[in-house]
Design a protein that fits this description.
10 helices, 280 residues, 8-stranded mixed β-sheet, alpha/beta
């Protein structure tokens, strides 16, 4: 009974955050080999498509500070990653590996009929977007990576330590998020959503693996790498340097004054301006 109440509370927080998009949203339930994927869609039907991939162990309502602005010029497809908290249901083939995750995304994009779209991913979602672009470059028009993890550099040991403490039994996910954001004020609705999401059942945690330099150098799609200046997840300078060497044609910028988890909504006007400027 306690578990079902917790899930109900989580979905209430999910819906409350989705309401903050402040635009009409169509909820698609897309069936496939792995189960049913929730995709929250908004924006003009004839506008260029933009696929949004959220960070790990969260879900698509986290784009609440971006959806209204981005959907003025794009048709947004905000996906709940299969296996994460959210409204996607992995009741088909298990998502148990990186290959499964790419197969799920490939099947979903085909089902949505997105033959050529822009992609924007945050954190683990950025890794998914990058790996999908390497897998199917002709389906990706432009690619945006928001403080991408495991794309160009690994996690800091201090991040792994604080994350482990936060998510172990008796730990506090809020303490980890407060540490990573360096004490910045966490949006209450987003925080409730994150904390409840950390307590609901999820699928297997898929560990990302950095792509080889050779694969990255061969990538010709236009790419924007937007780093969080105050990120404690990885060494921002190292990520920037490796990205410059392996994606010499990419636009690489740093968004000042924001942390890793909060980059989508800490300075949304500046973020949205840069995204729209790059996507054209």
């Amino acid at each position: 009974m306690g578990r079902s109440v917790r899930i109900d509370d989580y979905f209430a927080a999910y819906d409350a955050l989705l309401e903050r998009w402040q635009v009409p949203v169509t909820a698609l339930e897309v069936p496939g080999e792995f189960g049913t994927t929730r995709v929250n869609v908004c924006g003009p039907e004839d506008a260029p498509p933009l696929v949004l991939l959220h960070g790990g162990r969260t879900a698509s309502p986290g784009w609440f500070a971006n959806a209204a602005e981005l959907s003025r010029e794009h048709r947004l497809y905000a996906i709940d990653t299969m296996g994460d908290p959210g409204r996607s249901v992995n009741d088909g083939r298990p998502v148990a590996s990186r290959a499964d995750l790419m197969s799920w995304l490939d099947e979903l994009i085909a089902a949505l009929g997105l033959q050529n779209a822009d992609y924007c991913g945050h954190s683990f979602g950025a890794w998914q977007a990058l790996m999908y672009t390497l897998r199917a470059p002709r389906r990706v028009r432009r690619l945006v990576l928001l403080d991408p993890t495991q794309c160009f550099a690994g996690f800091k040991v201090s991040c792994l330590w604080h994350a482990a403490l936060g998510f172990l039994p008796g730990g506090s996910a809020e303490n980890y998020l407060t540490w990573e954001s360096r004490g910045a004020g966490l949006d209450p609705g987003w925080l409730a959503f994150q904390l409840l999401g950390s307590a609901v059942p999820t699928g297997k945690l898929i560990a990302a693996r950095k792509p080889s330099a050779e694969r990255l150098v061969a990538l010709t799609n236009p790419v924007l790498v937007l780093l969080a200046e105050r990120s404690r997840v990885h060494d921002v300078a190292k990520v920037r340097d490796v990205a410059r060497r392996t994606l010499p044609h990419a636009v690489i910028e740093t968004l000042p004054g924001v942390s890793h988890h909060m980059i989508p909504f800490e300075r949304p006007k500046e973020l949205n301006r840069r995204l729209l400027g790059f996507l054209g």
